[in-house]
């Protein structure tokens, strides 16, 4: 008798768990309204680098990534990526910085933060891919990429803006020419502090 009760309880738990899993699976389809939860706390270290986040985003939404940023989302680390889809539509993709899973994806609308501004950043004029720009930036300044963005505002010349947290502990902003791959600028946030310190003497 006890065995039958235990089997019935286990069966009920499995069925209830299966129902919950089904509800979670359906909730995943409506990614615009659901909260994303990363497996890494915002004060932790991302285990997924920018290239792995890009690969996950492009697998979920075929196209070209023009922006990726490591961000704090609801207390967890995530990669937020802009993908210019093969469908010629902008998509926002959120990837867990701990395990590389796609947490959310949706098409951008005109009310989004970027609006029509992203249309001129479409990857049509970038001969250098995001991956190549990241490689060039890390060769110039080894560390961890925290942000990369295709930009074309300065005189219309397209370039990748790459933020690197260097092995020296400083945050570095590098510009990589989107046509040649040449690192065109290297500014350290702390360099400005050093300049101000020199004025105090």
What's the arrangement of strands in the largest beta sheet?
A: 4-3-2-1-5-6-7-8
Shape field: globular
Secondary-structure element string: HHEEEEHEEEEH
- Number of helical segments? 4
In the predicted model, the low-confidence regions spanning at least 5 consecutive residues are: 1-34, 190-201
3D architecture notes:
The model is unreliable at about 1-35 and about 190-200 (pLDDT under 50). This protein has an eight-stranded antiparallel sheet with strand order 4-3-2-1-5-6-7-8. It is built from four helices and eight strands; from the N terminus they run ααββββαββββα. About 30% of the residues are buried. With about 200 residues, it is an alpha+beta fold. It has helices at about 1-30, 50-60, 130-140, 190-200; strands spanning about 65-75, 75-85, 90-95, 100-105, 145-150, 160-165, 170-175, 185-190. The chain starts with a helix and ends with a helix.
Summarize the structure.
The protein has helices at residues 2-29, 50-60, 130-140, 189-199, and strands spanning 63-73, 76-85, 90-96, 102-107, 143-151, 159-166, 171-177, 183-188. The chain is an alpha+beta fold. An 8-stranded antiparallel β-sheet has the order 4-3-2-1-5-6-7-8.
Q: Keyphrases for this structure?
A:
globular, disordered N terminus, disordered C terminus, 8 strands, alpha+beta, eight-stranded antiparallel beta sheet, 201 residues, 4 helices
Write the layout of secondary structure elements.
Blueprint: H1 2-29, H2 50-60, E1 63-73, E2 76-85, E3 90-96, E4 102-107, H3 130-140, E5 143-151, E6 159-166, E7 171-177, E8 183-188, H4 189-199
């Amino acid at each position: 008798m006890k065995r039958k009760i235990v089997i019935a309880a286990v069966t009920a738990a499995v069925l209830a768990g299966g129902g919950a899993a089904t509800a979670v699976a359906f909730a995943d389809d409506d990614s615009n309204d659901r909260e994303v939860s990363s497996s890494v706390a915002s004060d932790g270290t991302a285990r997924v680098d920018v290239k792995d986040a890009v690969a996950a985003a492009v697998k979920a939404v075929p196209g070209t990534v023009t922006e990726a940023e490591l961000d704090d989302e609801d207390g967890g680390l995530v990669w937020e990526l802009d993908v210019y889809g093969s469908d010629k539509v902008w998509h926002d993709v959120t990837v867990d910085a701990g395990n590389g899973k796609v947490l959310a994806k949706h098409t951008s609308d005109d009310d989004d933060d970027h609006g029509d501004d992203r249309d001129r950043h479409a990857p049509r004029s970038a001969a250098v891919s995001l991956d190549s720009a990241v490689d060039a930036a890390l060769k110039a300044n080894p560390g961890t990429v925290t942000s990369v963005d295709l930009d074309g505002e300065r005189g219309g010349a397209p370039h990748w803006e790459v933020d690197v947290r260097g092995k020296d502990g400083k945050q570095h902003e590098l510009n990589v020419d989107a046509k040649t791959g040449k690192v065109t600028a290297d500014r350290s946030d702390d360099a400005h502090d050093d300049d101000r310190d020199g004025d105090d003497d």
